[in-house]
Write a structure and sequence with these properties.
The complex is a heterodimer of chains A (378) and B (232).
Chain A lengths: L1 H12 L2 H32 L1 H6 L3 E4 L14 H8 L4 E15 L5 E9 L10 E3 L10 E5 L15 E4 L2 E9 L11 E5 H7 L9 E6 L5 H11 L2 E4 H15 L1 H42 L3 H37 L9 H28 L2 H6 L1
Parallel strand pairs in A: 3-8, 5-7
Antiparallel strand pairs in A: 1-9, 1-10, 2-3, 2-6, 2-9, 4-7, 5-8, 6-7
Chain B lengths: L3 E12 L6 E12 L3 E5 L6 H8 L7 E6 L2 E2 L5 H11 E4 L11 H11 L4 H14 L15 H13 L5 E5 L7 H15 L5 E5 L11 E6 L2 E7 L4
Parallel strand pairs in B: 3-8, 3-9, 6-7, 7-8
Antiparallel strand pairs in B: 1-2, 1-4, 4-5, 9-10
The chains are: A alpha+beta (378), B alpha/beta (232).
Bound molecules: adenosine-5'-triphosphate and magnesium ion.
Amino acid sequence: MFGILRLAYKLLVNDKAKFTALLIGITFAVFLMTEITAMFAGVLNRASATVINIGARIWVMDPSVQTVANTIGMPDYALDAVRSMKGVKFAVPLFSGGALVKLQDGAYQSVNVIGLDDTSLFGRPQMEQGQIESIYAEGAFLVVDDSEFPKLGNPKIGTVFELNDHRGVVTGIAKVATSALFGVPSLYTTYYRAIQYIPNPRYTISYLLIEPKNESDIPSIQKQVQALGYLALTREQFETKISNFYMFQTSLGMNILIMTIVSFVVGLSISGQTFYTFILENLEKFGALKAIGTKNRELVLMILFQATFTSLAGYGLGIGLCTLATALAKMRLPDYASRITYGNLGLALLMVVIIAAMSSYIGVRKVLRIEPFDIFRG
Amino acid sequence: MGTVAIHADGLNKWFGEGEARTNALKDVHLDTTFGEMVYIVGPSGSGKTTLLSVLSGILRPDSGTVLCEGADLWKLSNDELATFRLSKIGFVFQDYHLFPRLTTAENVAIPLILRRTDWDKALIEAAKYLEIVGLKGRANLPPVKLSGGEQQRVAIARAIISQPDILIMDEPTASLDGDTGRSIVAFVKEKFLNANRCILIVTHDARINEFATRILHMEDGRLSNEERHQNE
Ligand SMILES: Nc1ncnc2c1ncn2[C@@H]1O[C@H](COP(=O)(O)OP(=O)(O)OP(=O)(O)O)[C@@H](O)[C@H]1O
Ligand SMILES: [Mg+2]
């Protein structure tokens, strides 16, 4: 069996021009598909950064909220109502909103402020420097050390700034798992300081965070919240909602979809066409092999091997190229959002498998149809 | 007479439909024995290639039987037929059908590789056969670098490397000049033919008639069984 595969390999690789064209086609398609979907995955991940970082099990919001960035305030009585619901272990308010910081050098910088519940500090970040309790100090803010951190002039503990004309002081540096999409630094403070410092409409609670007593209580909590006129989503549901918003309510998702399809079609046509020409050119020889005594099954095996080998080589090259491009981009742009997830790799692999399957299907059909008699007759 | 190599009876083969329907083989009967070098001659379109194909397990007849070394060929499955061809029959095609992207030695080694011989062993064996056909030192060249006669010898080396019992050649000298054609046929007869082997050749080329042990005539799908030994 190995000898036949080696024969197939030689027939393929020794045809340097076609083999190169095949590799380039697949590499190019894989590169484009992975690059584009990775970028999209990166964007989606960042769009849900707050949800991921706070980590609450259930998020209650106004039903009109579409992404984590556009919050609609909820009144305090909603908090009391939720707290008394069956199945709720505890519930806390969360503030999330934009503000303007004036740095010591006089420059202004927009920031996103997250106000944590004063008593529990639920959703607190991990600290890199300083203590979480320092958040209770006069005018205290924790700065998140993400890729946006330098935009605040790389502050240290004790750095003073103005936030909407109030004095603020950095009392700690927080670590964060996922940085946000919008390119502005994030600050943590307490809920009450946040609503004091940042002018608000009548209602001040951006989100209510609920911890259920049991996973099984979630559906009933969602129903009770709905009866109250609000929307309760699990963390996963909220992330999906945000993803869906970017995918379907902005042109982003459609463009990504179009680009992915285009790169798939380009890859398929280049490689399919080249592989088809390769088979056609060797068709008589395959016929001669058949006459000599090669079984159909063995010919199919040879073609499948050729298609699989080319596809996997192209896949590897494409992914390699993509990783390289991402690494280079991240060197120059620390903010670069691209994320190569297993999902991206799987999607590209699936497409490559489809390309290989379709190309070899055409080849196999051709080769199974040749009559060795026609070859013999010349 | 030696033992029977091929026994064929009542072979019929039609091609095409309606107006274009032709009867390429008409009730053909044929017996060949080992030790023979049989020529089949006749005008173009008389059915010579069709007959060779039916006898060697390449083309299924519409009726009739072929017993090849006792095996009833057209009762075998497609896979069994392939195995039969691989182990018993060597083919030399009219236009060689060598793989241009493989070396000469790799081309010759193909039947052994198909028979699961280890790659390196097959190539060593191929080099030996290239030496036998007078192409020593050409093992690593691609076949396109060789002349027509040399390519024909590569095709012969490929046909005989697996030591088949029956060698089938269709117009082996058609694209060669007279002297080259004669020397190739003489060579095959000398190196390959023995009491346990049989060669079937289709040819138009009267210049090689002297090598035949028997010449059969074909006309319009009929094989005349009046034989003419060249020594007669
Ligand atoms: N696949 C086919 N479809 C239709 N007709 C065919 C086919 N193959 C052969 N024929 C017809 O069968 C007849 C015999 O053909 P065959 O090739 O056996 O002749 P031949 O004696 O080998 O001729 P040549 O000397 O030109 O090679 C011819 O009339 C040919 O047109
Ligand atoms: Mg013919």
